[in-house]
Amino acid sequence: MRKHRCRKCGAPPVINMPQHRLALCGEHFPQWVVEQTERFIRKYRMFTRRERLLVAVSGGKDSLSLWDILWQLGYIVDGLYINLEINDGKRYSAESQRKAERFAEQRTLRLIVVDVPGKYGESISQMAQRCRRGDGKICAVCGLVKRHIMDQTARDNGYDVLATGHNLDDEAATLLANTLAWEIDSMLRQKPVLEARHPAQRRKVKPLFRFYEREMAAYALLRKIDYINDECPYAEGTRSIFYKRILNQLEADQPGAKLKFYLSFLKAWERGGLLQKQAYDDEVRLVTGDNEQLKTCPSCGQPTTSIGLCAFCRLVEG
Ligand code: Q46
Ligand code: ZN
Ligand code: ZN
Description:
Helices cover 49% and strands 12% of the residues. By secondary structure, it is of the alpha/beta class.
């Protein structure tokens, strides 16, 4: 078997990335991740140094690593932690919040904490139960609440951009699910940069979208980031985990398959956009029914596709 060496210094590597034909040592790998992130930020025109960024942090490796990278690169970046009180306030939420708070303290960064039960009187599980969604559908309620709080916090605190720590494994799994069902409207929202479509929205970016999950785990470890290792208790059995396993099998057989799958999607999207943007948009509007301007929720001021209260306000107002 070929013996790998760090491409920069020849030392024994900590990671081998066959999709890039690149192996790097413990010193050069974190540097490479930071440089690559900066390259992606510029290449995809995510944000500039003058803009104020808000990173949504869960206490996990991806979001804390993203905050660490943006902080090292000198961006104006604060964090947002949303206490969902998952597992009804037992271990998972409390521990993930502690990790996010400790991370911010160590680097004297600002962390905004939004406490869902404190602000809205119910945990996510209780909201899901009230809507009779049960454990199986709790993620739909959770996603709705998180999106709303992220948008509103960014708007109320004067941020320009919302960043999330989605990595390539997350994005490829979502893309596979969307492709299998041909959910075109969801696919169109899967880009690494999503411009605001309403004055109350902010640009949304995913600067880690080209890194594999194992690369982010290695980065967090080498940077000694103390993150919560456990998954959310509701993650097991979700379709996202299922598709990640399938893609991992594919990747084991064809190194680079995940990256190629996602980058080919972006390329096809760009090509479609350049060649026949108008026709394409019309098609999409036809498919998604998105032929009207977004409206404004009279209660919270956030965008909504329906007339009257947005889905979040309908949820919290019962
Ligand atoms: S936090 Fe929420 Fe995820 Fe937990 S309840 Fe589901 S959506 S799995 S990213
Ligand atoms: Zn090296
Ligand atoms: Zn609303």
